[in-house]
Design a protein that fits this description.
The complex is a heterodimer of chains A (407) and B (170). Chain A is of the alpha/beta class and 407 residues long. Chain A contains 14 helices and 13 strands. Helices cover 41% and strands 16% of the residues of chain A. The longest helix of chain A is centred in the N-terminal third of the chain and has 23 residues. Chain A is globular, with a radius of gyration of 24 Å. Chain B has a single domain, classed as Rossmann fold (3-Layer(aba) Sandwich), CATH 3.40.50. The radius of gyration of chain B is 16 Å and the shape is globular. The chains are: A alpha/beta (407), B alpha/beta (170). At the A-B interface, α4, α13 and α14 of A face β1, β2, β3, α2 and α3 of B.
């Protein structure tokens, strides 16, 4: 096993014999290892020294392991340090709960130090690959949309008659545009028609892009020609900039003033206002609305002008943040009287008497939610594919195959 | 979670996600294969099948509606063998939703995906090559047909996924 000795590891746990043997092993492998039991000292260490990976015992006194994790994730300087949870909790729902919070890996105690070292290696290797791909792209280029927006990118590819996939990312949204020999042929955002997806991305003026120059083998789903797309894009950008100039920054936290349906609000404004019943920033509100970005921004302006939206406090946002990514829009305790976590855990406890049926009503897709939209993204892989690791051996897969093969 | 008697910590588990829009027959698909099935009120279905010894196969039926289980995607990707995207062959909306699902899965997760068109008890006279362009499948997308309530048929779909995975391993 080869591990990079330049990496720093922080372990937050009691100094037990098992932890000591783990530390000894990691030091032998060339890691710089730091152990803290005190949460505040561990947090201060992260702020000043920034370890490459953190191992946290979840079951420290007074739930402090979990509190430390939440504190790290809410701090911009530490939120993307990978975290591995160590704990004796072995129930599936506990593993799911911690993974659902955004933990990078989960190791049950007692553990084999070899296994922990292998998992650390895997995570650090994944981080290095992602960093490497960001630094150098052999067949493409990347940058910020504030410097080069989609209109600029399409023009560039059109001039050179290039084929490429343009990956875009803004806030919690991701999308891509397919260009074949300089012509835009398709666009994709989850649960969005290709034309609408393209229109949406034309106004993404902050965020990042990555252009992968490659052959594009895809059916044409966008019928507009580039000239029309570019004109539309320019107009939309102009409208967007006009609106933005009259509003605070997109990162500004806003909160709705509770009101009954008021005659001064249109129904659409009233529905839009509901998005801000929890404190969130403007960009999050726009993305959650599912509306065209310019339309959504228009509602933000209108509601701010009418006084139904006010600036929210960071404290209110923090109180919501731990569960917001998972449960936004779901009232705690609404279903079966459970809180958020026990509600998730209850998914795995419900039994059927064999005659149950799932509720698969057809609603024409109106209430279909965006997949993965609010789940807290793995912070170190915003665009990279989640790499596929097969946890069974080939022999085991063949045994499963043999058992299932009906022929 | 399941009433298996084999100690949890010693189990070796293969996990496959059956994903599909509303109306796709995830439940009968899983019930046709698994011995032990749990159905929740959140459109998530769990099935387990003991293969032999300590080896189990888990099938997760995951729908696409509701925010409560969006976490399942990243969670399931931790140890998933692959995905089966199930849709109703005769429902055009089901086609479109499955195409979106396919794009989502291949964009985020680097695991094998099989698209299973469920014809249930109806015939499917239309040539698959004609339908592929209609639902924007490329030549390399793996499309297969199944009858979601027929055990032999559903097992063949899972075997097809396993063959894809086994073929990728050294």
């Amino acid at each position: 096993m080869q591990l990079n000795g330049r990496h720093k590891i922080l372990i937050v746990d009691r100094q037990t014999a098992q932890i000591k043997s783990l530390i000894d092993m990691l030091k032998d492998l060339g890691f710089e290892v730091h152990l803290y039991q005190d949460i505040q000292k561990a947090y201060n260490f992260c702020q000043t020294t920034r370890p490459h990976i953190i191992l946290i015992e979840w079951q420290l006194p007074m739930n402090s392991g979990k509190q430390l994790f939440e504190k790290l994730k809410s701090n911009v300087t530490t939120h993307n340090i990978p975290v591995v949870v160590l704990t004796r909790e072995v129930e599936l729902e506990d593993r799911i709960n911690s993974l659902a919070l955004g933990v990078d890996d989960y190791i049950s105690k007692p553990f084999y130090p070899d296994e922990v070292a292998a998992r650390i290696e895997m995570i650090l290797h994944e981080m290095e690959l992602i960093e490497e791909s960001r630094r150098s792209l052999k067949h493409g280029f990347m940058g910020h949309l504030s410097e080069m927006n989609l209109v600029d990118l399409i023009q560039t590819l059109e001039l050179g008659k290039k084929s490429a996939i343009i990956y875009l990312s803004r806030g919690g949204s991701e999308g891509r545009v397919y260009v074949n020999e300089g012509l835009v042929i398709d666009a994709y955002i989850e649960r969005t028609d290709p034309s609408q997806a393209l229109t949406k991305m034309l106004t993404w003026l902050d965020g990042s892009f990555w252009v992968s120059l490659q052959r594009v083998d895809r059916l044409r789903m966008i019928n507009e020609d580039n000239h029309d797309i570019l004109i539309k894009g320019t107009q939309l950008i102009h409208q967007w900039r006009q609106l933005i100039s009259q509003l605070p920054s997109l990162n500004t936290l806003l909160q709705a003033i509770k009101t009954n349906e008021s005659t001064s609000l249109t129904k659409a404004e009233y529905n839009f206002l509901d998005i801000f019943s929890d404190v969130k920033n403007i960009l999050q509100g726009i993305e959650e609305s599912g509306l065209d970005d310019i339309e959504a921004l228009g509602y933000v302006k209108s509601l701010l002008d009418k006084g139904y939206l006010i600036e929210g406090s960071p404290e209110s946002a923090k109180n919501n943040s731990a569960n917001a990514g998972l449960f936004m829009g779901i009232e705690p305790g609404k279903s079966n009287g459970h809180n958020g976590y026990s509600r998730i855990a209850s998914f795995f406890k419900r039994k059927t008497n064999g005659t149950s049926h799932t509720r698969e009503e057809s609603d024409g897709g109106k209430n279909v939610e965006t997949m993965d939209e609010l789940y807290p993204k793995r912070t170190h892989s915003p665009k990279a594919l989640t790499s596929h690791k097969v946890y069974l051996s080939k022999a085991e897969l063949l045994i499963i195959r043999q058992k299932l093969d009906p022929d | 979670m399941f009433e298996a008697t084999y100690p949890k910590e010693k189990r070796r588990i293969g996990e496959i996600a059956i994903v599909g829009p509303k109306g796709s027959a995830k439940q009968p698909f899983i019930q046709s294969i698994c011995q032990d099935v749990v159905i929740t009120d959140q459109d998530i279905i769990f099935g387990s099948l003991k293969i032999s010894g300590d080896l189990f196969l888990f099938l997760y039926g995951i729908g696409t509606n509701g925010r409560a289980y969006d976490f399942a995607w990243d969670l399931v990707a931790q140890k998933i063998l692959g995905y089966i995207v199930l849709f109703d062959w005769y429902d055009e909306q089901s086609f479109k939703r499955s195409k979106q699902l396919l794009d989502f899965l291949t964009f985020r997760f680097d695991a094998p995906v099989i698209i299973a068109a469920d014809v249930r008890d109806r015939p499917y006279p239309v040539n698959e090559k004609i339908y592929r362009p209609n639902i924007s499948l490329t030549a390399k997308d793996r499309l297969t047909f199944c009858r979601s309530d027929d055990t032999k048929s559903t097992k063949r779909v899972v075997v097809s996924l396993l063959d894809t995975l086994i073929g990728q391993l050294p």
